[in-house]
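Re: How this chain folds, sequence and tokenised backbone to follow
Notation: Tokens come from a learned vocabulary of local backbone shapes, not from coordinates.
Start of record: The labelled sequence and token lines come straight after this line.
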Amino acid sequence: MNLFVLIALAVGLSMDAFAVSICLGLSTAKTTLRKALIAGLYFGVFQAVMPLIGFFVASRFADIIIAYDHWIAFALLSFLGGKMIFGSLSSEEQAEKENSLRPKQMLPLAIATSIDALAVGVSFAFLHVDIVLAVLLIGITTFLVSMAGVKIGSVFGTRFKSKAELVGGVILVLTGVNILLDHLGVYDGW
């Protein structure tokens, strides 16, 4: 997996955290740097740790299912991307305004937005991705995107939430298709 695909994947994975960060930014009229940093750290760290966990768990089973690795990566990324796309098209508003950045509120949000990164980490084990580079790119991208989301939420409101989820979902699905076509020999990948 080349650097371009890893960056696109990092952006795609960060879109859930971006959407939640927008909601966090909505909760106050004035967004402080502290609030943006806290959100960025929670989401960035969890988005980086989850693929690492998935990678190490899947690495133990890589020899067993190596013949199916590209199908697993395709299925996981397409499912997660499809879920994000469907969520972005939903007419039901699920954003809740949080008035606090205490761990009691932030931990569940950080875990919920990083579950897809766990599945991506499983895919990384089968694709022999440089896990250190991938984890750093995902963590840093999510950190920066989440900080921006808090600010955007305080300025623009919920206007961008569904668009962010849609873009993230499309990126994940396209990455899955790219992996599958590359491994099937249809073309040489991105």
Remarks:
- The chain has a mean pLDDT of 80.
